Amino acid sequence: MELICPAGTPAAFREAVDAGADAVYCGFRDETNARNFPGLNFSRDELKTAIAYARRHKVMTFVAINTFMRAGQEKLWHDAVDDAVRLGADALILADFGLMAYTAERHPEQRLHVSVQASASNADAVKFLVETFGAKRVVLPRILTIPDIARLARQISCEIEVFVFGGLCVMAEGRCSLSSYATGKSPNMNGVCSPASHVRYREDGSELVSELGDYTINRFPAGEAAGYPTLCKGRFDIAEERGYAFEDPVSLDVMDHIDALRDAGVGALKIEGRQRGKAYVAEVVSIMRRAVAANADERPALLSRLRRLSEGQKTTSGAYEKRWR
Amino acid sequence: MPASTHPSLSLGPVLYLWDGPKWRDFYFRIADEAPVEHVTLGEAVCSKRLHFIEPHVAEVIERLEGAGKKVSLASLALVTLERESQLVRGLVRDSVHPIEANDLSALGLLAGKPHSVGPLINVYNGATARLLASRGATSICLPPELPMASVRDIARDAPDVVFEIFGFGRVPLAISARCAHARSKGLVKDNCQFICGEDSDGLIVDTLDRQPFLALNGVQTMSHTCQSLLQELGELTAAGIGRIRLSPQDCDMVMAARIYDDVATGRCSPAEGLGRLTLAYPGVPLSNGFHHGQTGASWIAAPAGSPPWR
Q1: A42: which DSSP letter?
Q2: Cβ–Cβ pairs < 8 A, chains A and B
Q3: How far apart are CA B138 and CA A257, in angstroms?
Q4: Above 0.90 for ipTM, yes or no?
Q5: CA of B248, closest CA in chain A: separation in Å?
Q6: Whole-prediction pTM value?
Q7: What SS3 state is found at B169?
Q8: Most buried one in A94, A231, B61, B156, CB count within 10 A?
């Protein structure tokens, strides 16, 4: 199985290549990609250099242009596609139908992957994208169980890539406006979720309060580690119950299920984390490279090292296991 | 020239789980009394709920059509199981009514047939609207988070499509494989006991500082506020928007529809309409921030002294 690794900076890109990635995915430094964070992403020149480096090491480069084109400003997205093609991207990861149509028409030879943000969650949806835009691969939303994926794989004619490690969306990707409801900035339109520009921490007595826009997302008593206020991982009150209404502050880890995913027909495993530093990327990629190749006996030791790198050290298999629902 | 110079009213599907008789009686009253031209009905949120309304769908459609309403059927928003795929395929194959696509499978299967596109399909630009139109979409309800600048641009870019705007109701903000509603009551989705039926207008999620924030509706998360674009009907009309969608809340929806109709036809001012709306749907704050490119939850008042929209 291919290992698809994140790079938010040229340094992380080189680390991912050196650590054994089969492909590295990255985006331009603007709103055309879903990790539009300050200090991250690539200029055209940086992408050119990165692709050349990857080529020398026989590693592929995927360019994520996976936000939705803002009406009236489509040129920003068209330029991103044209430049990524010109610079030699091995695949473009797209979510917007209008942009997929543009790419299929202008660059018919370019390999097109369906972003997780497109929310193609079943065989008929995938067939629509394959037939209409010539998509070669779909990145599945994190809402399917492994048996769902196996059934899907038997019905479609394109490759399947799934997220296995890193951040976890609780909501179906590309179909969530929670962030813009609270901040005005959304993943679909701006490439951000719960953006740092709208985050505030304040002390209230002995508690630390985390806020997103005008809303309290969590309160941490003295001694409890304060997490980032990602909206869907906050603590709320529902009737008399207080707790994590949607999901705990956990990250995704389905590395225990590598064999089941392979048997299900998954061809590529994706690591989330373009916002992570190069040391993290290097370590995760190198451990996962070995874990994918290892037999089932050797794997647990490798995976326990991986787990220490997870956010808050708490992980979940998410929707890949039915009981998560 | 079109017969009317203002948008028509359209009723979106009931997004909550109401029991069969309540659901039926709601539509009977809509048929008899509400000034809406289009009605889209059917379960869009959770496939587990379908059996509640199934026994009543035929009589509801008959009553609505008898009253001259145009009826469409909504497809499921989230399709992951084989059973759900079969439901969508069956709907597309068998329906004699136009279908509103709410996920990509329905969109794919409906190619070549006239159909509508629901607000949960990502149409953020004219290129996407034109592509969908070329495949058979005749009307598109745009995503609620779209700002007016985008709405205007898209409508200009795809003049053959009737555009619909989410003009009234709690905004569907997200959908998940996990049921937060069941979890909040100590249950899981696969054994949920249809607990979301206890909250006919959603279950309020408060922040830890007692601020109402969101509303749970099964696997869907909605806004606590009710989006209302009454003040904005004028600019929506000027932009060529053909329909305003009213999303059913557990309130007097006939009164809500009359208010929108009165404002759209100039019988009452937007300010007066808003005052009446707070009586029709009491206790729920209004929002219009998405439309103005602001935080979705916010309310942007019309500038003082601005003329009534006509």
Answers
A1: B
A2: 225
A3: 44
A4: yes
A5: 20
A6: 0.96
A7: strand
A8: A94
